[in-house]
Amino acid sequence: MLQSLSPCKRLRILASRISGRFHMGSAAAHRTVHRLDYQPPPFWLDAVWLQFDLDDASTRLRSRLTVRRNPDVANPEGLWTLDGEALTLLGVRIDGQPLARAAYEVDEHGLTLRGLPEHFELEVDTRIAPADNTALSGLYVSNGVYCTQCEAEGFRRITYFPDRPDVLAPYRVVLRADRARCPVLLSNGNPVSTRAIDPRRVEAVWDDPHPKPAYLFALVAGDLACRSDAFTTSAGREVSLNIFTTDAYIDRTAHAMASLKRAMAWDEQRYGLAYDLDVFNIVAVDDFNMGAMENKGLNIFNTKYVLTDAETATDTDFLGVESVVAHEYFHNWTGNRVTCRDWFQLSLKEGLTVYRDQEFSSDLHVRALKRIEDVRLLKARQFPEDAGPMAHPIRPESYVEINNFYTLTVYEKGAEVVRLYDTLLGEDGFRRGMDLYIERHDGSAATCDDFRRAMADANGVDFTQFERWYAQAGTPELRVDSHHDAELQRFTLTFSQRIPGQAEAGPLVIPVRLGLLGRDGGAIPLRLASDAEAPLERVLVVDSRVAQFVFEGVASPPVVSLLRGFSAPVTLVHTVSDADNLVLLQHDSDLFNRWQAAQDMLGSRVRALADAAEPDATAELSEAVVDGLATVLRDGSLPPGVRAEALTLPDVNTVTAQLDTVDIDAVDRGLTVLKRSLAERLAPHLRAVVEAPRSAQFSLTPDAVGERALRALCLDWLSCSDPSWAHPVLADQYHSAGNMTDRLAALRIVTHATDPGYEALRAELLGDYEQRYTGDKLVMDKWFALQATSPRGAVVEDIRRLRQRADFDVLNPNRARALFGVFAFNNPVRFHAADGSGYRLLGDFLADYDAINPQTAARLASALAQWRRHTPARQAHARATLSALRDREGLSRDTWEIVSKALHDA
Ligand code: TRP
Ligand code: ZN
Fold it and tell me: Catalytic residue at 328?
């Protein structure tokens, strides 16, 4: 209903409806949940039957639960509280007998029953209004299509239920809806039947035999087009595959389907895990809080992670679709068949499944490049999170709102911790651990400890100390000192570890993959005194505060290639000379460390230039360093994507990670000066890349993707050093591009240019893009995002103006993120503006937006948690914005938790 009104009108209606709904905002009103308080459920479910009568304003739901008392829980009063929020209760029956109103209690959190027998059938009738659900949690409407999002605690917004992941049951679901409006009716599992109830209503029945918790429930109903395909498992099961979405989008689903089939084949081949139902359905909707959701047999996706074609999607989009499709598919085993006992175990499924999707992409494309991208993200976003007020272990100890813990730490650091087992045990050992984990826990709800135990037991290894990776927050710092003894031909490496600010933290198990190189770049055999073998690469295990390793037979001081492939999520503290980094850059057998060497040299220049009163890049950049970078640029033996990554300047967060206070303007100046100077000195090479002939054919091979990225980088640099040369090249690339990657790259450079000579072109191209793609949501998100990430001084006013546009649909999270999310996270210089204008911009938006979509609002608010390392004037502005939000009447629990933690002690 609300969906059909204009955004501003909807906003007004919502604001009036929502104000006065909550009267909390104080710590006391928001309960903290603690990991150690876990209690098993008092009742188990043997079966769930649900019947939905779908309607925008009044959906009626009948549920029938077959219930059995949990004999392990003492419960003499037969007491049971079912979770339920924002529901209208119509009736309760036990074994067919209606309960009198006095026989149960209902409050805003749930329904409490007493005196329950050993076994019974519980029936509950409820009513909800999906069209008014702007939080997009529970049952809601996107573009006229009914859909659900139940993770983590959305099912309780559908009906009264034990909404916790350790209560599993098979489900039978009956969907009834308007025949014309909902020709497609989907739920989990296999289809049973469909029939017309009467000329206006239609019914479909679905059956999911695999026991699952409520967070994996899903339904979809609407008028959707479908792309169908099939996959035969190695065991001979014929699986029908379908991707459903709005008719206008269906031509953009081919790549997602191909990705799904690759993922299904890979999981069988690499882990022996095959699909277990007759159908696998994917539905793509425009309005979605996150990327996608792994509901059993019915994955629901944000269109952003399904739709692609060369004209409208970039290479990054294509790769993102492939990896998210795979991620959700892989959850079928790691998440669904084996689920989580409680939400503190979230990383059990997310860290593991991210690790699996990373491996999938690495096997399919260029492994080193995937690793570089993942580590870049980890350092730019997870390391700061782990050093800020929201820092938590991958297995958190407590939360106020679980949705706030779907973090980079749980996902990305969680994946790094899973990768550690692989590094320590080897591929075969890791596979043995996985097999045992699945064998032991299939069909049940497990813990992170269960996973660690399976890895240990399958390999006869003691992983007791390894638990600290789950229990301690913060990025460990690993200091490395080296000493060469020429006389004894010995080389000694001394490691010491700590977590900054946590003197009490115990030592972690840190695998350090390394090699030694001669000055000529040749690999030196690694002969440890204790060992007969001398391989060219080793994994040293540092598991005490200080550890020393002595290599024999090292004639002269070697170059050390440390932490190859980023073998552990730590910050390395060691001094490497330019000379050593240049050897690594050109000769290391580990491509990741070649990239790292370039990044180290660039990063230290940025810091030096940021510190200088009068930054002089020419003096900072020796001939040797420039030559080294030029060699990388031209090195045809390196994948072009890796060359592009090596020369991409490090992120502001990464450059400043070790600093206590950050003057972001100085860092920005350092980056700008460095970029211009490098661009000037490398100009002929950059031009050679841009002018190299290219195939007119669009392809997604790693080389084609890498070449587009490298060309974009060169054009970007040339636009700084030689704007008048680049100007016509960019205009031409924009207009004649045969794919979105090239078109958007040109548009980005022009949109972000600060050179006044680009003003007219900027207006022209932004106008052209708008005309070409108006109404195409995902494509226009890019247009909003480009403007919001511009370094131009006017960006805050630009965003305030863009917010007023009719196509700024505040109910669509992608659009809100495209304007405010990218500003807060990807435009740090303007977001942290000294006058506080960036913080105020976000704060003003969140003040309204929190009432509409608390989950997405809280995610945006987390950008405000990074203020402490900035200059004092900025700190004062951030505190003011945060306090104003915290003190708002009716602020959601989600946003309240973030802002109050961001303000803690302030
Ligand atoms: N489990 C999903 C995934 O990572 C993500 C998810 C968690 C989610 N909570 C959500 C998606 C809420 C949408 C909305 O694969
Ligand atoms: Zn996931």
Answer: yes
Amino acid at 702: P
Residues 478/199, Cβ–Cβ less than 8 Å: no
305 lines ligand 1 (CB under 6 A): no
Question: What pLDDT is recorded for position 582?
Answer: 98
Q: Please indicate whether residue 412, judged by its CB atom, sits closer than 6 Å to ligand 1.
A: no
Single-letter amino acid, residue 379: K
What's the pTM value of the predicted model, to 2 decimals? Answer: 0.97
- Which tokens in the block code for residue 776? 């195409």
The pLDDT value recorded for residue 26 is 57
Task: Enter the tokens of residue 97.
Answer: 């007998």
Place of tokens 């669904």: 336
Predicted pLDDT at 8: 46
Q: What is the 3-state secondary structure (H, E, C) of 842-862?
A: HHHHHHHHHHHCHHHHHHHHH
Closest ligand to C-alpha of residue 299 is 1
pLDDT at 18 over 90: no
CA 406 – ligand 2 centroid, Å: 9
- 148 in ligand 1 pocket by Cβ < 6 Å? no
Neighbours of 85 (CB within 10 A): 17
Q: CA–CA distance from 465 to each of 129, 422, 475, 567 (Å)?
A: 50, 16, 17, 18
Look at ligand 1, atom 3, and give the residue with the nearest C-alpha: 293
Cα angle: 159, vertex 162, 164; to 5 degrees: 115
Residues in CB range of 464: below 8 A, 6 or more apart: none
Rounded distance from Cα 616 to ligand 1 centre (Å):
47
3-class SS at 225?
Answer: strand
Of 190, 318, 332, 338, the closest CA to residue 267 belongs to: 332
Per-residue model confidence as pLDDT tens digits over 186-219: 999 999 999 999 999 999 999 999 999 999 999 9
For the stretch 256-302, pLDDT in tens is 999 999 999 999 999 999 999 999 999 999 999 999 999 999 999 99
**Pairing between β-strand 219-222 and β-strand 145-149 as defined by DSSP bridges:** antiparallel
With a CB cutoff of 8 Å and minimum separation 6, the contacts of 714 are 686, 687, 689, 690
How do beta strands 559-561 and 510-517 pair?
antiparallel
- HEC secondary structure over 2-52: HHHCCHHHHHHHHHHHHCCCCCCCCHHHCCCEEHHHCCCCCEEEEEEEEEE
Distance of CA 795 to the CA centre of its chain: 26
Is the pLDDT assigned to residue 10 strictly greater than 90? no
**Buried b / exposed e along 508-530 (16+ C-beta atoms within 10 A):** bbbbbbbbbbbeeeebbebbeee
Least confident residue range of 261-270, 436-445, 649-658, 737-746: 649-658
If pLDDT is split at 50, 70 and 90, which confidence band does 27 have? low
Q: Distance between CA 9 and CA 765 in Å, rounded?
A: 31
- Determine which one of 151, 203, 322, 328 is catalytic: 328
Q: Which atom of ligand 1 is nearest to the CA of 154?
A: 12
Q: Is 290 in the pocket of ligand 1 (CB under 6 A)?
A: yes
Phi, psi of 162 (to 5 degrees): -75, 85
- % of the chain with per-residue pLDDT over 90: 94
Q: What does the DSSP assignment read for 174-185?
A: EEEEETTT-SEE
Closest CA to 593 of 628, 642, 641: 642
> Which residues lie near ion ligand 2 (Cβ < 5 Å)?
350, 353
Q: How far apart are CA 692 and CA 493, in angstroms?
A: 45
Q: How far apart are CA 691 and CA 419, in angstroms?
A: 41
Beta bridge partners of 299: 282
